[in-house]
Amino acid sequence: MKGQKADLVIHNAIIHIMDENETQYEAIAIKDGKILEVGPERQILNKYSSDETIDAEGKEMYPGFTDAHGHLMPYADMKLGANLFGCRTLEELLVRTEKYADKSNRKFIVGHGWDQSMWGGDILPTNEKLNELFPNTPVCLYRVDGHAVLVNQAALDKAKITNKSIIPGGQVTVENRVCTGLLLDNAMDSMSAVIPAYPEKNRINALMEIQEELFQYGITSVHDAGIANKDLPLFKKVAESKELKLNVYGMLRNSAENRTFVEKNGKVNWGNFYISSFKMFADGALGSRGALLKKPYSDAHNHLGIQTTTPEDMNNLAHFCLKHGYQLNTHAIGDSSNAILLNLYEKAYAVNQDHRWRIEHAQVVDPADFELFRKYNVLPSVQPTHAISDMRWVENRLGKDRMQGAYAYQSILKETGIIAIGTDFPFDRLNPFLTIFAATQRKNTDNQPSGGFRLEDGLSLMDCIRGMTIWAAIASFQEKYSGTLEKGKEANLILVERPLNSGRSFRENFSMLTVIKGEIVYRID
Ligand SMILES: [Zn+2]
């Protein structure tokens, strides 16, 4: 008897519901955006009739993936600027920038994605040639990690940055009393403040393209790691118009405007868009030597990195978050910032042991501090692709002895029993299948190094998938209605083209069917 009506039934699948017992079923019935029942093939097919029935042809189903650390609007703006990813020389960077300038006709040129470590010598660039090519038009070119920018003199003038500018938590690079055009961390803020925004229509179109790209990869949720106050109206617009189908868990950037927003609005939920957390920066990045280390860099003596937020401001924000019931998620790359943060988070632990405050990246941690994650119930939020993106040069920065605490995901997981996983797109590739490969094999797509990069700190396949599903849901307080494919939860699910495995070489993979709250948002036949 097919007594009960469902909106959608998917059967003949290998359904990993991602509960604690690693239960597998074959069929799922969905109604009003939620999971009615998941179970054996005959049980579901006999019980439910449905407007739409999909035969999964034996493909694997998982809960939709979450990218626990990405940047939506920076990615949208990046799509609208000059593409400098993969530039092999400074010359190529200049040529691509010129081509973009000719084509786009913009009065302020912005580009993204250069990486000096690909140029040989690992020497950070200066702006002489940029000044020759663009004597009058301001040009601002971001490094791949978003923690350094190369600008020309016209841009420096526009932002009123001189060789005497001192910016706390940042660096204006000066050689022979002349600005080289290289700005690090907080020094970039005065530059971004003078860059004119792209038209809203173009930005929304770019965001919709990104949403489509995420769905193709089976990503149904993104934790947006640092939303600027000026972007909130745009998010509200696309969320309320339902153009935003993706679940977005937003972290607000630490700014006076965003604190005022929280005082007025408390926790926010517009359609699929949620805000109940702040994102703070404790330091910069390793690539541009901005990460704050306990001992000097191995390749820059006397240099410890950059503390981008003062201890006083960190304390203020922590108190603000406690007062408003907000989660605090802090970017910490160096072992010194990780130690500072772990101790700061003790405050939250004293108030509420289930605070779920996060450390984003937790990239270099002193092994003596690993246990503090457990002690203060701090959630690590990591990006396994960073390990393979950085492995070429990271030992030069840190030296051999510190490598034991670098990208030490397994060691940290042993303490916490939970780890949220993301990619930091667009500063690394958003492909979750690459994340799985990087986390389990610790190799790049060229299969290097053959034994894996510090493989002892790799993750198991199941733990990596948990990090992108149920653990990511816990890290955003959404586990009651998302993260597994259990009865009563939102029907956020994917069917993958190839079975997920921890194979020894990387194979492309993608979602064939992506469903959010019961709605098919992406499908290929
Ligand atoms: Zn980030």
Q: What is the average per-residue confidence, as pLDDT, rounded to a whole number?
A: 96
Summarize the biggest pleated sheet: 9 strands, mixed
| Estimated structural class | alpha/beta
Q: Identify the overall geometry.
A: globular
CATH architecture of the largest domain: Alpha-Beta Barrel
Query: How helical, in percent, are the residues?
Result: 25-40%
Per DSSP, what share of the residues sits in E-state strands of 2 or more residues?
Answer: 25-35%
Determine the number of helices (DSSP H or I, runs of at least 4 residues). Answer: 18
Q: Looking at the chains present, what oligomeric state does this protein adopt?
A: single chain
CATH class descriptor of the largest domain: Alpha Beta
Low-confidence stretches: none
Distance between the termini: 30 Å
CATH fold annotation of the largest domain = TIM Barrel
What is the alpha-carbon Rg in Å? 23 Å
> What is the CATH superfamily of the largest domain?
Metal-dependent hydrolases
Count of distinct structural domains: 3
Tell me the number of strands. 25
What would your notes on this structure say?
31% of the residues lie in helices and 25% in strands. With 525 residues, it is of the alpha/beta class. The protein folds into 3 domains: 4-58, Urease, subunit C, domain 1 (Roll), CATH 2.30.40; 66-70 and 199-515, Metal-dependent hydrolases (TIM Barrel, Alpha-Beta Barrel); 72-192, Diaminopimelate Epimerase, Chain A, domain 1 (Roll), CATH 3.10.310.70. The strands form 4 sheets. Strands 8, 15, 16, 17, 18, 19, 20, 21 and 22 form a 9-stranded mixed β-sheet that branches. A 6-stranded mixed β-sheet has the order 3-2-7-23-24-25, with helices on one face. A 6-stranded mixed β-sheet has the order 9-10-11-12-14-13, sandwiched between helices. The chain is globular, with a radius of gyration of 23 Å. Zinc ion binds at residues 69, 71, 225, 424.
